[in-house]
Write a structure and sequence with these properties.
Length: 297
């Protein structure tokens, strides 16, 4: 069997972190690995049953991303075979689609010698994804705070957040489109002001390392959690118990259906075990922020 030309590793992500709706993302220490080998036609081979239902030809999201990036630069990417392994739960609020897009961008950049800068990759990824939070974190690592609208992208990158993370994953997946369909088209001005203030306080607290304040603000979201919380059995009981055992805060991970718990660095294993015992409906992942984004291994 021919040896791969190169292998790419991309981290999972959680987005929003509460009131940072469509603008704040964090890379997490679950990974997708893609090995790239020359071939006569495009093909994608997934390891494991969870990803078996995904398309494996030229209509695959990773392949489509490679081709779309190539088209942007007036180039054509030669076919390759992609072998994918991943420990990121599919469709459960941990950025699996953004991870695929980030992988496709790095593959195109490498195969075509584009030498794209990080902000260029992030701009392309945001345009392809339709929002900037997950894909920017997947590409850059750490925490990213972004402003993305009408083609304008601004990024603040916090590369080494000093926290631990626990993600509670339920057995049922939920599509992003379905989850977004639960959101209102409008919010009263006063609610939007409160949400904006909570987001500003949260991101500033993250930047200065005040995770107790960041955790409190994480729970003051008005943009999406009030409309999605009905999807989560025992959510208020989980939040109360998280406070009881010393977590900084808990919020919905991305569009759901996972829950993200910010905890003191080094306590993530202990907190995950306690939560799994108390709420066995959920599987618990003890994680850390991933300092590196998508990269060639």
């Amino acid at each position: 069997m021919e040896e791969p030309l190169f292998t790419i590793v991309v981290p999972a992500t959680t987005a929003n972190l509460g009131p940072g709706y469509d603008s704040v993302g964090m890379a997490l220490s679950l990974y997708m690995t893609v090995s790239v080998t020359p071939a006569d036609t495009w093909s994608v081979q997934y390891e494991g049953d969870e990803y078996a239902k995904l398309t494996t030809g030229s209509d695959n999201l990773i392949v489509r991303t490679v081709q779309e990036v190539a088209e942007r630069f007036g180039k054509e990417a030669a076919p390759h075979s992609l072998k994918v392994s991943s420990d990121i739960p599919l469709g459960k609020g941990l950025g699996s689609s953004a991870t695929a897009i980030a992988a496709g961008i790095v593959i195109a950049d490498t195969l075509l010698g584009l030498d794209l800068q990080p902000v260029e990759k992030a701009r392309i990824g945001s345009e392809l994804e339709g929002h900037s939070d997950n894909v920017t974190a997947a590409l850059l690592g750490g925490i990213t705070v972004t402003y993305f609208t009408q083609g304008e992208l601004e990024i603040i990158h916090l590369p080494s957040p000093a926290i631990g993370a626990v993600v509670l994953v339920p057995p049922k997946a939920l599509g992003t489109e379905e989850s977004r369909g639960l959101l209102p088209k409008e919010l009263p001005h006063s609610e939007a002001v409160a949400g904006s203030a909570a987001s500003s306080m949260m991101t500033t607290a993250m930047a200065i390392g005040d995770w107790e304040l960041a955790g409190r603000m994480m729970e003051k979201d008005v943009f999406h959690e009030p409309y999605r919380k009905k999807l989560f059995p025992e959510i208020e009981g989980i939040r109360a118990y998280c406070h009881e055992i010393g977590a900084y805060g808990m919020t919905i991970s991305g569009a759901g259906p996972s829950l993200f718990v910010a905890v003191k660095e080094g306590t993530e294993e202990e907190v995950a075990e306690k939560l799994k015992r108390k709420f066995p409906y959920y599987d618990g992942f003890a994680l850390q922020p991933a300092e590196s984004g998508a990269k060639i291994q």
